[in-house]
């Protein structure tokens, strides 16, 4: 097995563990905060602080990974994520929770563009999309496992226990990350202003960012408004969860096959555009669906379309940049 494939496998493992732990906190923190007297508005500020901090710091951290190396930022991000998870049980008032969970956003922002860039750095020739297929499958598996495990631990023990378990899982990823070698790409480091200028003039990078915003905007609309539509049609909450679960499962499972297809054809643009159009059309058909089976089918189509789209975007962004600017481009992707 080539060294790059070993690094890719380890990067996928770190991604799975880190995001499982990080997303254990997502359903638990609002419950924990309200149990200690936080208002709905305060809960919104706590959760929003995390997202805002992660969004605004992803580009600087991506640039830092280009200059200081992926490994440094990866390990630092995981260390901060583990620390903030272990600090959450020690605080109960909203201001403290906002500060700690906001700092957790820094951990995610340091980790994500660095690991995405590392995947591009070590991908085998002709296998870029497959590399991003494996990476994003690990990512979305963490997205799915984290909330389930967090809810299970919180219900069986307590919210504080869920934070501690999350911290332990992320600490395990940090320990595994110690085996990650420094990957030498041979690329000269660009000065920050020069790197920004290179990315600013790169139309392929901008196209990838715009496609990402478009896809995630559509996805957010589905997650927000589909439950309301389904409730109006008399669909039970369990069935609503099943429909969205089908979308998540297909979105995750289709990542590696999508990467294989993209590498076989050697093109990206038709799959980005085709995936976005397919997802948009299937979403537009949701209000016209006549029954549960229609909702499940459309949800599966949307999941597959998103899988193809985002694997293609990840591969396209990596191929549009050099190792000297890849972290900056992936930071913009993370911000989007």
Explain this structure.
- This protein is mainly α.
- The chain folds into two domains: 180 residues, MFS general substrate transporter like domains (Growth Hormone, Chain: A, Up-down Bundle); 118 residues, no CATH class.
- The chain is 83% helix and 0% strand.
- The protein is built from 13 helices and no strands.
- Helix 1 runs parallel beside helix 5, helix 4 crosses helix 13 and helix 5 packs antiparallel against helix 10.
Q: What overall form do the CA principal axes indicate?
A: globular
Roughly what is the average pLDDT, rounded to an integer? 93
CATH evolutionary superfamily of the largest domain:
MFS general substrate transporter like domains
Identify the CATH architecture of the largest domain.
Answer: Up-down Bundle
Assign a percent range to the helix content: over 70%
Main pleated-sheet profile: none
* SSE-based structural type: mainly alpha
CATH topology of the largest domain: Growth Hormone, Chain: A
Hey, roughly how much beta strand do the residues contain? under 5%
């Amino acid at each position: 097995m080539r060294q790059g494939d070993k690094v890719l496998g380890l990067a996928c493992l770190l991604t799975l563990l880190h995001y499982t732990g990080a997303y254990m906190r997502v359903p638990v923190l609002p419950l924990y905060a309200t149990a200690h007297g936080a208002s709905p508005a305060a809960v919104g500020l706590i959760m929003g602080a995390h997202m805002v901090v992660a969004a605004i710091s992803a580009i600087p951290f991506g640039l830092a990974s280009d200059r200081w190396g992926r490994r440094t930022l990866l390990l630092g991000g995981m260390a901060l994520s583990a620390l903030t998870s272990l600090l959450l049980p020690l605080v109960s008032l909203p201001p403290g929770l906002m500060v700690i969970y906001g700092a957790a956003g820094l951990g995610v922002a340091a980790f994500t563009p660095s690991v995405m860039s590392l995947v591009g750095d070590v991908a085998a020739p002709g296998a870029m999309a497959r590399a991003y297929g494996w990476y994003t499958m690990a990512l979305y598996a963490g997205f799915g496992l984290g909330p389930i495990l967090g809810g299970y631990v919180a219900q069986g023990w307590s919210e504080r226990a869920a934070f501690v378990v999350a911290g332990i899982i992320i600490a395990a990823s940090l320990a595994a990350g110690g085996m990650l070698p420094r990957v030498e790409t041979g690329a000269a480091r660009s000065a920050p202003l020069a790197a920004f200028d290179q990315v600013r003039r790169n139309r392929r990078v901008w196209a990838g960012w715009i496609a990402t915003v478009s896809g995630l905007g559509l996805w957010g609309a589905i997650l927000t408004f589909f439950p309301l539509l389904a409730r109006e049609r008399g669909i039970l909450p369990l069935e609503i969860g099943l429909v969205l679960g089908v979308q998540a499962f297909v979105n995750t499972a289709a990542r590696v096959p999508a990467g294989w297809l993209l590498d076989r054809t050697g093109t990206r643009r038709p799959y980005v555009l085709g995936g976005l159009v397919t997802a948009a059309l299937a979403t537009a058909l949701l209000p016209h669906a006549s029954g549960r089976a229609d909702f499940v089918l459309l949800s599966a189509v949307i999941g597959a379309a998103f899988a193809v789209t985002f694997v293609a975007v990840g591969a396209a962004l990596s191929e549009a940049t050099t190792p000297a600017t890849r972290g900056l481009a992936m930071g913009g992707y993370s911000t989007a």
